Amino acid sequence: MAETTAIRAPRSLIAPGRYVQGRGVLAELGRYVAPIGSMPLILTDAVVKELTEATVTESFRRAGLPVRFEKFGGIPTAAEARRVADVAVERGCDVIVGLGGGTVIDTAKAAGDNAGIRWVSVPTVASTDAPTSALSVVYTEEGAFESYRFYARNPDLVLVDTQLVANAPVRFLVAGVGDALATWIEARAVQRASATTMAGGLATHAGIALARLSWDILWENAMPAVEAVRQNLVTPAVEAVVEANTLLSGLGFESGGLGAAHAVHDGLTAVPHTHHLVHGEKVNIGSITQLILEAAPTAEIRRFVEFTARLGLPTTLTEAGLGDADEEVLRAVVAAATAPEETIHNLPFPVSADDVLDALKAVEVLGRSVRAEAGLPEPQAPESLRTRVPTARMA
Ligand SMILES: [Zn+2]
Q1: Which tens digit of pLDDT belongs to each residue from 204-223?
Q2: Distance from Cα 131 to the centre of ligand 1, integer Å
Q3: Fewer beta carbons below 10 Å: N end or C end of the chain?
Q4: 102 belongs to an annotated ligand binding site
Q5: d(CA 343, CA 264)
Q6: pLDDT score of 7
Q7: CA separation for the pair 15, 117 (Å, rounded)
Q8: What one-character-per-residue DSSP string does 34-89 give?
Q9: Which residues lie within the region annotated Disordered (predicted)?
Q10: What residues of the chain score a pLDDT lower than 50?
Q11: Could you tell me the distance, in angstroms and rounded to a whole number, from the CA of residue 138 to the centre of ligand 1?
């Protein structure tokens, strides 16, 4: 059997062609895009366009590139990716620049693949680890997880301007920390199970080490970085967290593997109750669920719950809008989280729907008890289930 395994699953690590991060680097975007294509299409939403248009236009002008913006439709569906690809083909574009949050970036990748051209990620928030990967999450029109879509290549360029990240609402950075903390929890489980990663092989030592490094950096820097971003400051802690959220977590999740945290996230998107949360916030509920399923040491779970609660991440079903959800709603979450193709089956032990249901219910009890013990306020239910944040619900 060992021979078969070796043939089926070699070790693999994949990565973007270039990663550039720093304060003000958006002004250099043209210089970095020019070697990749001469006819770029910039996919973005109205809010990000307003913030970046002058800088991007000047940067492209200096690099001798034409400036063509295309407005993102709002939800990263397969139909939206086809529409953007058609626009790119009609205009003779040879590279798509996804400028904004995770949803824009994932759509840019899908459209680039549809059109047979290259693509570039320019995240304006550090809310997810989507920018570096060779995959997109495809959503339904209703905003529920539909599937992962895999590409032959990672983006040719990922460029992150840390001043833009620091100017964005702090909630995005915090959500990115939630997404990035899951990376190590999931990668170590995938490694224990010798399961395949999103890169299509067993994890390399490098992939595992990057996932772990992301975790270590966040425990050290997340609190001061969040305080700095509240004041729109770019400090070394902010630079470290942006790198952990974007590059390290991106390489770590893709080449280290996903487990239960993201599967539970996907399950949570199946019910409208949770749609007020962004991706990394739902992932945090998933991370706690996975730690419970793994029977991680109690002290470790409690430390994780307290740390993420202090950062402002949801740690209870109440905050996820599911505090008074009936069994049927939770069953719908669990059914989606344990679908046969879900990454929850990468855990080193079998997981049933009942196991996940009870672990989810335990999240509520644990979250409340840790908050009480730590002197944190009781968890609050969302004020309105219709308060949706339009970007950044992506992997
Ligand atoms: Zn994610």
Answers
A1: 999 999 999 999 999 999 99
A2: 11
A3: N
A4: yes
A5: 9
A6: 57
A7: 18
A8: TTT-SSEEEEE-HHHHHHHHHHHHHHHHHHT----EEE--SS--HHHHHHHHHHHH
A9: 374-395
A10: 1-4, 6, 385-395
A11: 13
| Rounded alpha-carbon distances, angstroms, from residue 338 to 98, 278, 330, 344, 382 | 31, 21, 12, 6, 26
- Confirm or deny that 179 is annotated as ligand binding: yes
- 368-385 pLDDT, tens digit each: 999 999 999 999 998 754
- How far apart (Å, rounded) are the C-alpha atoms in residues 194 and 131? 26
Tokens describing residue 14: 């994949």
* Residue 50 CB neighbours (<10 A): 10
Written as six digits, the tokens of 61 are 């002008």
Catalytic positions are: 179, 262, 265, 279
Assigned token pair, 314: 């949801």
135 is in an annotated binding site: yes
Tell me, in angstroms, the distance from the centre of ligand 1 to residue 129's CA. Answer: 6
**Quick one: CATH architecture of 19-166?**
3-Layer(aba) Sandwich (3.40)
Tokens of 44: 């973005």
Look up the CATH superfamily of 169-373: Dehydroquinate synthase-like - alpha domain (1.20.1090.10)
| Residue 3 to residues 6, 8, 190, Cα–Cα distance (Å) | 5, 9, 20
Each domain of the chain, given as residue ranges in start order, spans 19-166, 169-373
∠ at Cα 253 (6, 281), nearest 5°?
A: 150
Q: Is 355 assigned to a binding site?
A: no
Q: Is 92 exposed, middle or buried (0-12, 13-18, 19+ CB in 10 A)?
A: exposed
Residues 6+ apart with CB under 8 A from 145: 137, 139, 265, 266, 269, 270, 336
